[in-house]
Amino acid sequence: MRIQRKKAKPKSKKLFIIIPFLILLFSxxxxxxxxxxxxxxxxxxxxxxxxYYFADSKYSGIRSKFVTRDNKREKVSIEYPITxxxxxxxxxxxxxxKIDRDFQNTVLLATVxxxxxxxxxxxxxxxxxxxxxxxxxxxxxxxNGAHPASMTQFWTFDKKSGEVVGLADFTEQSDEAxxxxxxxxxxxxxxxxxxxxxxxxxLNEIINKEALSNFIITNNGNALAWPLGQASLLPSSYGELTxxxxxxxxxxxxxxxxARKLANIPEPPEPKPEPAPTPTVANKTIxxxxxxxxxxxxxxxxxxxxKYDAKATFFLIGSKVSARANTLRRMQSRGHQLGxxxxxxxxxxxxxxxxxxxxxxQTNNAINQAVGTKPNIIRPPYGAFNRAVLEQxxxxxxxxxVWSVDTRDWADRNSxxxxxxxxxxxxNGAVILMHDIHPTSVNAxxxxxxxxxxxxxxxxxxxxxIGDMTPxxxxx
Length: 476
Ligand SMILES: [Zn+2]
Prior knowledge:
This protein is of the alpha/beta class.
């Protein structure tokens, strides 16, 4: 081996005379001539065994030029992309040729050829629109060393100008945007490393604007990617790794004409509209609620409410509804809200699933029959409910409404006491519980409305007090 190597060098012609092995002399001489030819002719003409041909690629508007060299020393296959832009073609072919030249030099200097050294260079187009072209060139070299080399070169081009688009162009020099992308890229690497159970690595020194300057667009224009060959940014033990950053995750930083031209940049998310200020905040409002009706005193209550221009909410017992359907229609026409209060007033957390469903549905149906709409609120009798009960409400698009002020009007059938309890408990946003089946309660209402109006309160339905409600949730 050692002898051969010495003889392989053209300079060592003196050795030819010294060593008497004719075969060795003959072969070494041949190699010498071959090398001289190679090094002499490389700059001007292709080696005689180089062949090339053109073919359409699978990418629109792009042809391929295939170059092969196949001999004892090397086995080479290179596919160059030929786009419609000469500038793009030149940059890529120069880049490929530089790599190929290094390979040829290695082949040239090598002396041992158990098998030919191989080089395969191909390309992939990951984004190809009228404006943008992203190309990855993959290079695989096996120079009979310990490790075959795998490298990539990649670019995104402005198809019209033929210029390479760098990260700084894509972010229009915005440091904030670049930082966001760098941070997302680090995140992508960390996740990959974690999935592969490779050791953690400090990426701060490695991943920066320069390292990420060249990028490709992938995923139909919806992602940025960096297909890293082995040892190109990370230590070689980490292998090949593609950094992917979904554009949606950084789209707010890419709201610029360049990025829009080249990739799919979603519109910035609409700023969430501020929740409409509810009357609760703007004014002092209260929801008066009346349970267990309709009853014989309900019509009188409606008169009182009309007089004060106050709106209220009625939680109705389903079994009582059909007999007083007119009262319900009047409630509705006067702008009051109708709610479900079960069919027969049980504790809903203690009845069977079947009865629970019936209590809700029969009442909803009765109310629907009277006024043409089903309620979206329900007050469980005694305020008794559990998760299963709420789930039944949720399935029907209904929310549970309890109360914040209990007048205990059913216990103290005394209008003055009921009024003073209501007034004492009143505060902005309060839901006051009363029962319109007791005349004392109905008679307490003028006192309540007078007192609280003087304090600046207005009286609204539960719906207007709370606003949008989530089905299956309990308020207030
Ligand atoms: Zn009740």
